[in-house]
Amino acid sequence: MNYASANSDLATLRSPCLATSLAIAKRLAKPTGNTATLSRAITDFKDQAGTSLRVNLDGPVARVLILGGADECSPSQYRKMCTLLAQQLAAMDIAQAAVHLLNTKVKGHNSAWKAQTLMQAISHASYRFNNYKSKPKQPVSLKRVRLLGNQAEQKALRAAIKLGSALDQGLTLAKDLGNEPSNVCTPAYLLGEARKIARAKDVSLTALDEKKMLSLGMGAFMSVSQGSDQPGKMIILRYSGGKKDEAPIALVGKGITFDTGGISMKPPPGMDEMKFDMCGAAAVLGATKAAIEARLPINLVTVVAAAENMPSGRATRPGDIVTSASGQTIEILNTDAEGRLVLCDALTHVQGYKPRAIIDVATLTGACIMALGSHASGLFANDDELADALTAAGELSGDRSWRLPLWDDYQAGLNTNFADMANVGGRGAGSVTAACFLSRFVGDYKWAHMDIAGSSFHQGAAKGSSGRPVAQLFTYLVAQSGL
Ligand code: BES
Ligand code: MN
Ligand code: ZN
Fold first, then answer.
1. How far is the CA of 121 from the centre of ligand 2 (A)?
2. Is the CB of 259 under 6 A from ligand 1?
3. What is the pLDDT of residues 291-340, one digit of tens each?
4. Rounded distance, CA 471 to CA 326, Å?
């Protein structure tokens, strides 16, 4: 989507559609001679949250899309209003639209927030994945949106648009990667996509192949990858937008391009959804892309642990013991708990970049869906400041997480007679024991783990990648870069 800021002078506005409040629609109607048309159209309209009305007008503004309850509302109502607006615009057969919605009073939020909230809603509503449809259903005509504001708001609006457009590109990339089927989106494909990102200024890429990973002692990663004919990849992207000597923020993503469960195989119903098991990788690549597009003054190191979890004659058996790159040994009791195995070696590797914080993102446990459903990502952290910053970024962007405990009490679940730890815990708190497992590979680094098993993709009729938590991560990075 293409965005521009523009002056909110209604007398000179020309547009196929203006989306706005009832009050502003009335102000528009007067100079354009549409007062009678408008008052007839709004006879039964209730100006309250959740309503909208489209009215065709004469003159330079062909339609007005009126959003109910737009004088004053809560942040969540504003977000819903933006979603409604975006869905309506995406369904219209128009290439351009103008939106005048910065006048709404939203407690605690400024014009920049309102503009970004709107852009995020438009990004979601106008996204389509039609790579494999001979005849795409409901294509989106909308290409360009102008955000109207008064003179004093123009500067903030331009800055918001820069961030909003960058986020739009990151979200689209993450969704596309998630939606690609596993016969296309392999570890090598993810590497190719990372290479495209690395064409930008101040970005460099390193890829570790399986031979290299074996030489680095990544026995945990390899225990997953060895069962597949698709060679695994560890992908490292570095973006140096910040000061030379400043420690980077590390993002680490689980990139299981398909999770059959391995020898501990998953049951067939819904197994196709395991193409989304690389959504952590997609999210960190999306957030990295957005940070680069926005030219955030920050240093980043992004690591993707990409492998396919397959059963085969070379696959890991339950009971096998492997040595991770950290030197710790792991008894693999369930080959379906593979995410933590590829991640632990990535977490060890990323410490070589001396990051100031490490955030890993993974579709790690079905138990997280049981605990939180799809509304919140699960958040774990060994540092309160980091947890609070991520939580705040979630609230601000509407892409929210909820913190779960990482208490020592849960660690004992990973005990085994045969190695330093097992890769699965007991029956309860599966998301917590998974996080406990990862915590053993981060040393004293400030670290957070996000379990996005429930939030990163939709099931059922709307099946598809949600792009989460790209918005949360990007908002966190924006805050960390001091913007
Ligand atoms: N990729 C799955 C987790 C998952 C499940 C993500 C459903 C999205 C939707 C993960 O690799 C897995 O299989 N986890 C196991 C762990 C168990 C064996 C301890 C699970 O959740 O059942
Ligand atoms: Mn699994
Ligand atoms: Zn998995």
1. 32
2. yes
3. 999 999 999 999 999 999 999 999 999 999 999 999 999 999 999 999 99
4. 32
User: How far, in Å, CA of 162 to CA of 479, rounded?
Assistant: 15
Q: Are 393 and 377 in contact (CB under 8 A)?
A: no
Here the tokens at position 376 are 């919140």
Rounded distance between C-alpha atoms, residue 251 and residue 60, angstroms: 48
Tokens of 52: 């909208």
pTM attached to this predicted model: 0.98
The residue whose CA is least distant from atom 7 of ligand 1 is 366
Atom 14 in ligand 1: which residue has the minimum CA distance? 365
Helix (H) or strand (E) holding 234: strand 233-240
Phi, psi of 299 (to 5 degrees): -100, 135
Give me the residue label for tokens 């429930």: 454
Report the C-alpha dihedral over residues 218, 212, 274, 359, rounded to 10 degrees: 60
What single DSSP character describes residue 180?
S
- With vertex at residue 454, the alpha carbon angle to CA 452 and CA 455, rounded to the nearest 5 degrees, is 65
CA dihedral sign of residues 260, 265, 266, 271: positive
Question: What is the rounded radius of gyration, in angstroms, for the C-alpha atoms of the chain?
Answer: 24
- What whole-number distance in Å separates Cα of residue 475 and Cα of residue 219? 35
User: Which residue spans within 312-374 are E strands per DSSP?
Assistant: 320-323, 329-332, 357-362
User: Mind listing the domains of the chain with CATH numbers?
Assistant: 2-149 (3.40.220.10), 172-481 (3.40.630.10)
Minimum CA distance residue for ligand 1 atom 22: 366
Ligand in nearest proximity to the CA of 276: 1
Q: Which pLDDT tens digit goes with each residue over 153-195?
A: 999 999 999 999 999 999 999 999 999 999 999 999 999 999 9
